[in-house]
Each structure stands twice: as C-alpha cells, then as structure tokens.
Request: fold
Amino acid sequence: EAAMPPYLGESQTTAAAFCERARPLLTAVRDPFQLEEILPALDALAPGNTAAKAALDIALHDWVGKKLGAPWFRLWGLDPAKAPVTSFTIGIDTPDVVRAKTREAAIYKIIKVKLGRSPAGDREMIEAIRSVTAAPITVDANQGWKDRDAALRMIEWLAGRGVVFIEQPMPKEQLDDTAWLRARSPLPLIADENCQRLADVPRLVGAFHGINIKLMKCTGLREAHKMILLARGLGLKVMLGCMTETSCAISAAAQLSPLVDWADLDGAVLIKNDCFDGVTIVEGRLTLPDRPGLGVVKK
Ligand code: MG
Reply:
C-alpha cells in the first residue's frame, strides 16, 4: 500500500512508474530475505517517492514474515501486550459537532485535535472537547503557529487542560524558534513535518522532545525501525503516525508499536472502504493479530 496525500507530490501515476522502474531490480534479486541489500538499492533508484518505496518495503516484509511463519513483532522480539492505545482524531468543526464526535469516540483513550487556525478557534475546540470528556488530548498544530511568544502562551494554556504533547507547533523552516520554544514549553514538542527520514533525526535534538514516524514519509518499516532505535539513543520520545490508510499499512506500522510512546494509527477506522483485516482496536488499544508477516488478510 502506498498512501499519497496530495501535498506530498506523489500520485497513482508516479507510484506506478516507480514500481515499474523497480521491476528489473526486484526480478534480479536472488535472495528476497536480504532486505538490507534490496531496500537501499530501491531507495537509490530515484529521490523522493517515499510512499511508493514504502509500498515495496511493506510487501517485502509481509513476504519474509510469511515465509518464516512469524509476525514481525515477534521477529523484532517485541511484546504485543505493550502495543499502546491509539489516539483518534476529532476534526475541526462547530462546537456542537465536536461535542457529538467526541461522545462517539468514547472507546478511544486519547483524543487528537488539529489546531493552528486562530487562538480563539483553537481554544473553542479544546473547550468543546473538555465539556464532554476528561480523556487526555494530543494537539497537532500542523505548523500553524508562526509567532513563538504566542505559541508559548497557547501551550501554557493547553498544559492546564490535560494536553499530553504538541505536534509540530511551528513551520518547519523555523527550527531556531522551535528550539527557543522547546526550552520553555511545559509540554513535549513532537516533530512531524520536520522529521521525514533517518538522517533528519539527529538535527532535531534540542528543537523537539520527540519525533512522529510515518511509514509513508520514511520509506517503510525497515527505516522506521532504525529511526526508533536512533531516536531512543538520542533520548527522544517516539510516536507512530499514519496517513489515510487501510488496515494493510496500519497493520504494518502497528508491528512496531510496542516500541513507541504514543500511536496515532486511526487511519483505517476513518475510511469506509478498508479492504483488509489486520490490527484491530480493542478498548482503544492496538491489538496485533497472531498471524505471520504483517498479520493482514484480504477481506
Ligand atoms: Mg502532524
């Protein structure tokens, strides 16, 4: 699966073209278990194309796991009981709709809110959710706060309202301002737009408390696993996120979830045409199937 939000520049056409370009390399592979050889070679075929690369990475991991007869969480030595709860996103809307959607999302133990419009609109959104639930809230500002003093005031206000962390408070170009904010923020700051791939991780130390890893940004499971280990070594918190994805890509990411602090893997429950069965969400917690590979089957 390649999930391609339009703003990242990939499309069905570019993903299909990349897979076609990868065909000679893949047909020449003698040992498909050698993912440390194959995946860097695929990555070197062309810059970008991260979702198309993730699709091939996900498929190869599924194949290897099925041949070995084990789910990836087991091959990585992880305890599936440590899979975290996942947050559930409440979209920006009128206070009445926000209250209704929050009530419907009662099985989720963490609510995610996208802020970053205006201070008044942001406060209204939080107040609407708080009027119906005491569940922890995570905030994604989506680069929306341009002024660091105003951002700090907003974070201080949010810290008093049960907010757990702030994702990407400021534009990715304002890394110095984000470092200023990090030194003062009462809440952890998590990099999303600033963190695409493995090489981005070291430069985020000092500007963020943690990173948000998405398979579609980082070319798949193999690099995501390395990013988690590197982030841990650098003392960073780790969150796993997603795009709008089916249970295929969500179940792939969920294989890594026992390693992370927070998961935002609600993509498959926000769509109506999920064509796979895989990881399920039980009482808000990611529940990994005991099936080989990614644990995914076609519906
Ligand atoms: Mg985000």
Notes: DSSP finds eleven helices and twelve strands in the chain.
